Amino acid sequence: MESSAKLFIEQILPESELLALSSEADRRMVAGFGIERRRREALMWRYILRRELGADIEISYNEVGAPQITNRTEYIGISHSNDHVAVIISHNRCAVDIERLDRNFEGVTARYLHPEEQALSSDERLSATIWSAKETLYKFSGKRGLDFMHEIRVLEVDFENGILVGQIEEMQPIRMQFEFHSGNIVVYIA
Q1: How far apart are the first and last CA of the chain?
Q2: How many CB atoms sit inside 10 A of residue 184's CB?
Q3: CA distances (Å), 187 to each of 59, 73, 150, in order?
Q4: CB 9 within 8 A of CB 181
Q5: What distance in Å separates the CA atoms of residue 131 and residue 187, rounded to the nearest whole number?
Q6: Dist CA 152 CA 133 (whole Å)
Q7: CA atoms of 138 and 166, how far apart (whole Å)
Q8: SS3 of 178, please?
Q9: pLDDT over 70 (residue 45)
Q10: 3-state secondary structure 132-147
Q11: Which of 75, 80, 91, 112 has the fewest beta carbons under 10 Å from its own?
Q12: What is the DSSP letter of 60?
């Protein structure tokens, strides 16, 4: 990972702990969430951002609904999967996705896994890796409605070194990194 980027992969804390660690504004923000899991996810990534960048950061959402910091120059990327959250903070545009490795991707592979991508590796983690890479590229694009089969492609997968190369539409190829953590795959662009 580039030295200007920091990646945090952390287990989501219990709600009572997160409420004690959170600002009043963050507690108010999640109060309307009816599902505890959603409250915990939102409080956890906000807690990480405030812990790392300071309590005074201002968080808003851009036109496609992605969180952003409005009073600092850092870019952020956020993702969560069951009991973990992944947060990336960088001075460059960035994105991150975290997925459970034991998630069943069979029902959706026909919509995102191109035959050329399927031929990239025989590793049993390929489906999760390609899905997470495409989610990361989608977030990085800042566009809504991209087709995961045809407009977002993974060109290379290197399981040994944790490197992926992907492409959004006809743009230049984009290098991504990935790692496995506590039963999850985390793919990021730093």
Answers
A1: 6
A2: 23
A3: 23, 23, 20
A4: yes
A5: 10
A6: 9
A7: 11
A8: strand
A9: yes
A10: HHHHHHHHHHCCCCCC
A11: 91
A12: E
Q: Name which of 2-16, 42-56, 130-144 the model is least confident about.
A: 2-16
C-alpha 190/C-alpha 20 separation (Å) is: 31
CATH 3.90.470.20 fits 6-90, yes or no: yes
How far is 28 from 13, CA to CA, in rounded Å?
Answer: 18
Contacts of 35 (CB under 8 A, 6+ apart): none
3-state secondary structure of 72: coil
Give the list of residues 6+ apart from residue 97 with CB closer than 8 angstroms, or none: 79, 86, 132, 133, 135, 136, 139, 186, 187, 188
CA torsion angle 2 79 160 123 (round to 10): -160
The pLDDT assigned to 82 comes to 85
pTM: 0.95
Spans of all domains in the chain:
6-90, 98-189
Q: Which amino acid is at 7?
A: L
Most distant CA pair in the chain, distance: 50
Backbone angles phi, psi at 149, to 5 degrees: -85, -40
Condensed to tens digits (0 to 9), the pLDDT of residues 88-137 reads 999 999 999 999 999 998 889 999 999 999 999 999 999 999 999 999 99
Q: What is the pLDDT of residue 32?
A: 93
